[in-house]
């Protein structure tokens, strides 16, 4: 077992954080992170915070670094927890997620971004009016202060299609299909979070993510076969 995969001792003089402090410190990068997610990752052995005599969790800097690696591997590479655990066992957190060779998965090359509206338009090389058009047809969420990699991919893909004559008004069926798929996945994942156990809610979130990845892979494969046969 690689030495870096062991739980490293806490650096002297670094305070241990409560779960609330950890969530607050990661709020900007992971605004949807909740207690349930941390409890689930702990139950799966991916993070191991210390416990006070009263049972409260306390996180060291190493714990937070490990947590950030896990969250980024899921978000940026769509790695399943099994793959993340294997990587941590072999390498620890000493390599950046974005520098690691992509694992299988149709969304494995997505990189993390955080852009304001003007930055999104500039990065995607479109006018802000194009963003308004995407919002009008429900392809881009309205009222966001910041946009991530998913929104950037929506805008750039829609731009490429528009250049070939398929404008946002032609893509409503794609939005409708995605909404139906999300509802289907939610109906399967939701029962896993009804136990009232916060770890179960975190498990349901990860289960839905994995189902979504499989749905994307299936959709891509079916589309390729239809294009081949057309």
Automatic annotation (TrEMBL):
SUPFAM superfamilies given for it? Answer: Putative DNA-binding domain
- The UniProt record lists the HTH merR-type domain at 38-91
The UniProt entry, under InterPro entries, shows: DNA-bd_dom_put_sf, MerR-type_HTH_dom, MerR_fam
Q: Which UniProt keywords apply?
A: DNA-binding
Any coiled-coil ranges, and where?
Answer: none
PANTHER family the record matches: HTH MERR-TYPE DOMAIN-CONTAINING PROTEIN (PTHR30204:SF89), REDOX-CYCLING DRUG-SENSING TRANSCRIPTIONAL ACTIVATOR SOXR (PTHR30204)
What is the protein's name according to its record?
MerR family transcriptional regulator
Q: Native species of this protein?
A: Brachybacterium tyrofermentans
């Amino acid at each position: 077992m690689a030495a870096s995969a062991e739980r490293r001792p806490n650096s002297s003089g670094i305070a241990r954080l409560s779960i609330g402090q950890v969530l607050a410190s990661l709020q900007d990068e992971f605004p949807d992170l909740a207690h349930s997610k941390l409890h689930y990752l702990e139950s799966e052995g991916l993070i191991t915070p210390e416990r006070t005599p009263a049972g409260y969790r306390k996180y060291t800097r190493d714990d937070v670094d490990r947590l950030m690696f896990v969250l980024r591997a899921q978000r940026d590479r769509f790695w399943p927890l099994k793959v993340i655990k294997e990587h941590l066992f072999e390498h620890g957190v000493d390599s950046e997620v974005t520098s690691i060779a992509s694992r299988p998965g149709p969304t494995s090359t997505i990189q993390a971004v955080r852009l304001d509206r003007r930055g999104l338009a500039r990065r995607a090389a479109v006018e802000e009016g194009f963003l308004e058009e995407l919002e009008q047809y429900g392809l881009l969420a309205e009222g966001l202060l910041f946009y991530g990699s998913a929104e950037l991919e929506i805008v750039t893909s829609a731009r490429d299609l528009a250049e070939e004559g398929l404008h946002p008004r032609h893509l409503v069926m794609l939005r409708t299909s995605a909404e139906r798929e999300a509802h289907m996945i939610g109906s399967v994942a939701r029962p896993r979070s009804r136990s009232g156990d916060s770890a179960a809610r975190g498990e349901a979130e990860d289960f839905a993510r994995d189902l979504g990845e499989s749905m994307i892979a299936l959709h891509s494969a079916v589309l390729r076969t239809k294009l081949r046969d057309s």
